[in-house]
Amino acid sequence: MSGEFTAEGGHGAVPTEGVETGQGVKPSRRAWPLYEVFVRGKRGLNHVHVGSLHAADDEMALHNARDVYTRRNEGVSIWVVRADAITASSPAEKDPFFAPAGDKVYRHPTFYAIPEEVPHL
Questions:
Q1: Model's pTM, two decimal places?
Q2: Cα separation, 37 vs 42, whole angstroms
């Protein structure tokens, strides 16, 4: 499969062909790079993808992400990552990409006899 892919919101990869990411372009107001924004909420430990934004540099992206995605104190931590720095697998490659784990039976304790004296294993 041709083309580049990036992760978006944990829903797999999406094509970025024809989408301006700012890669190789001197930042200007018209061609600011695209950033993906991840926020960690107060109740959880995981950062969750909440959206995207364009910014001139990393610091501006962080400040803009704070202003746009945490207006109601929803988060305790923010990550911003340039979209052109993300490498992701393609949903079309799901079966061949993850298939090698299936033939490693030693990773799954399905053939061990568990004694009855061992609780909650």
A1: 0.57
A2: 16
Quote the CA–CA distance of 79 and 37 in Å, as a whole number.
6
- Domains along the sequence of the chain with CATH: 5-93 (3.10.20.520)
**Mean pLDDT value across residues 89-118:** 74
* Residue at 18: amino acid letter: G
- pLDDT tens-digit readout, 31-47: 899 999 999 987 777 99
DSSP 30: G
Which amino acid belongs to residue 6?
T
Helix ranges (DSSP H) in the chain: 58-69, 94-98
Helices (H), 70-111: 94-98
- Tokens representing 73 are 């104190």
In which band, very low, low, confident or very high, does the pLDDT at 1 lie, cut at 50, 70 and 90?
A: very low
Three-class DSSP category at 117: coil
